[in-house]
Specification:
CATH topology of the largest domain: Phosphoribosyl-aminoimidazole Synthetase, Chain A, domain 2
Largest sheet: 7 strands, mixed
Shape: globular
Number of domains: 2
Structural class: alpha+beta
Strand content: 25-35%
Strand order of the largest sheet: 10-12-7-13-11-15-14
Helix content: 25-40%
Low-confidence stretches: none
Order of helices and strands: HEEEHHEHEEEHEEHHEHEHHEHEEE
CATH class of the largest domain: Alpha Beta
Oligomer: single chain
Length: 375
Amino acid sequence: MTNEPDAPITYAAAGVDVEAGDRAVELMKESVRRATRPEVVGGLGGFAGMFDASALAGMTRPILATSTDGVGTKVAIAQALDKHDTIGFDLVGMVVDDIVVCGAEPLFMTDYIATGKVVPERIAAIVGGIARACEEAGVALVGGETAEHPGLLDRDEYDVAGAATGVVEYAAVLGPQRVADGDVVVALASSGLHSNGYSLVRRVVASAGWSLDRYVDDFGRTLGEELLEPTRIYTRPLLDLIRADGMDVHALSHVTGGGLAANLARVLPAGMFARLDRSTWTPPAVFGTIGELGRVPQADIERTLNQGVGFVAVLPQDQADRAMEICEASGIRAWLLGEVTLEEKATVAPDAEVVRGAKGVDGGAVQVVGQHPTT
């Protein structure tokens, strides 16, 4: 025998507010409309986003590239500060800039938000940030989904994820097959922590007893503002670099989870050795602060955080100066970080770790040497 409820149980009584979801869609419509491209077919609200791919028929051998990712525990900072309009840049950066690594142009993206309770204004702020970032990257936001998960997530909790698709000519695919002995590595500055390593960062901050509203002189703003700094979007500047007349970029690497050495090793062929020099840059203050507060070993922090390098490009030595000029013209600081040689003739420092491949890739070897300049 079962106990009957005192009153009928509705979807709303179970914790799902369909009307709130509809209000969120109304609030986000205008920002999503701006994140478009001429190839988009249809509008917001369809069961699937549609994209006119007829231009691909004019390509010799079009290769589709796809990527999916989330923001990770950085969302906890946004939730704690009740500021949700920048987390979308972190999502878009983590997704579309992975596509650029192979030389592809990202075309369109979809997003997914899971939350304990749909608060229309909060969902609209999140999607608004995603749309603005897509607009900056030249990517169409063709659809998405917001799911209410009462009982699984607390009322003010949410997580975000997304996926994107791009295209590149087969003959133009970047990667290990292009890297040559004598190439150099050019670094592109990050905007800060980006979206990796926040489990470490949050643990360090909590252990130190620092509040997010604490003003930090070295940052020139509060800790929370520093930690919530959006991920830089590299898509358009890197496409400009790749497509510039006379440029022959061989490989790109997005410096995300795993750090600089491991991510560069993924795009080097086996038998190649990259030597990177710490003396060529000073990491922004936030990296030193996290390291000192948590007494984090250098090897561990370099495997976890980007240390101020958001992307690297591998290209012929005689193109390095022009590559840096193109990046600087896009507002991204760039510098010569190191060189690539055949491992059999490389000078390997005996007191520094050599990283070989990463994430299942049997790639090349990378060694980071020297010390960062002190300020």
